[in-house]
Design goal:
Order of helices and strands: HEEHHHEEEEEH
Radius of gyration: 30 Å
Number of helices: 5
Oligomer: single chain
Helix content: 25-40%
Length: about 270
């Protein structure tokens, strides 16, 4: 006679006593579980919400750190691009603007930073491949003001979170300030910013002044700190210096300047 702890097939054992059993056959009786009550469901939802609330700040902090690290990595890559560009063009630096329009430095450096070089600066800044999410951008960039939204739509490659310093190698046109050479930056190049984090809408609404979202700005007399200098990464910004090293500086450090000049870290020293 087959032991009642075995199934009819004689192969799958049941642990006797683990389940309610039929009085006659001795086999387990499967019963429906009772559904959760509304109160039980609300308790579970509340616990999940509490856990999410506890974890969210940590997740956001980790995301911001990752954005800052990638931004710094992009600047280092741009620094390598500047080095190669200067080697090919007799120590000349890229020019930040073309006919007063920001973004020319991306056009000139693109080939040295792993991107295709397009036909012109205009074509470059019209392409999103040279803006946010590219080597010329910062993932922490939050966008622009409503007044600049139309410009961003047409020229996405012009924006992205990193900008060229207007005070160094400004432009290409004869009526613009001249393009600079590395030779012009022999004195204290580690104190002359070249490229760095720009402002975005999370910090200041610049209205229709789109260029100020695309360039590295120094503190101008009478302007609030947040209107000129980024604090995107832990109260500061990442910067590529003219000696081509990259690091993080506090917003107030960049604004204070040195030797009585608030624009010290944005200037060529002679």
């Amino acid at each position: 006679m087959r032991h009642p702890a075995f199934s009819a097939a004689g192969s799958v054992p049941f642990l006797k006593g683990s389940f309610p059993e039929d009085e006659k056959s001795g086999f387990p009786v499967w019963r429906k579980h009772k559904n959760f009550t509304l109160i039980e469901l609300l308790v579970v939802i509340a616990i999940i919400a509490i856990l999410a609330g506890l974890l969210l700040p940590s997740l956001n902090a980790a995301r911001r750190k990752a954005q800052a690290a990638k931004c710094l990595s992009n600047l280092k890559q741009i620094g390598l691009g500047v080095t190669q560009y200067a080697a090919d063009f007799s120590d000349w630096l890229p020019a930040g603007k073309y006919n007063g329009v920001p973004g020319n430095w991306k056009f000139e450096l693109s080939l040295y930073c792993g991107l295709a070089k397009l036909e012109s600066c205009e074509e470059t800044i019209r392409s999103p491949k040279y803006g946010y999410g590219s080597v010329f951008g910062c993932d922490g960039f939050s966008g622009v003001s409503e007044g600049c939204a139309g410009r961003l739509k047409v020229y996405p490659g012009q924006f992205g979170g990193l900008g060229w310093n207007d005070n160094i190698s400004y432009g290409t046109s004869p009526d613009e300030e001249k393009r600079n050479s590395i030779k012009d930056l022999k004195k204290l190049p580690s104190e002359s910013a070249l490229v760095g984090d720009t402002l975005d809408i999370s910090q200041w609404d610049l209205g229709s002044y789109h260029a100020d979202y695309t360039c590295l700005l120094y503190l101008r007399s009478g302007d609030p700190l947040d209107k000129r200098i980024s604090r995107r990464h832990s109260g500061g910004l990442n910067i590529l210096w003219s000696d081509l090293h990259a690091d993080w500086k506090k917003q107030t450090f960049m604004a204070a300047g040195k030797n009585g000049s608030t624009g010290w870290y944005y200037s060529i020293h002679k």
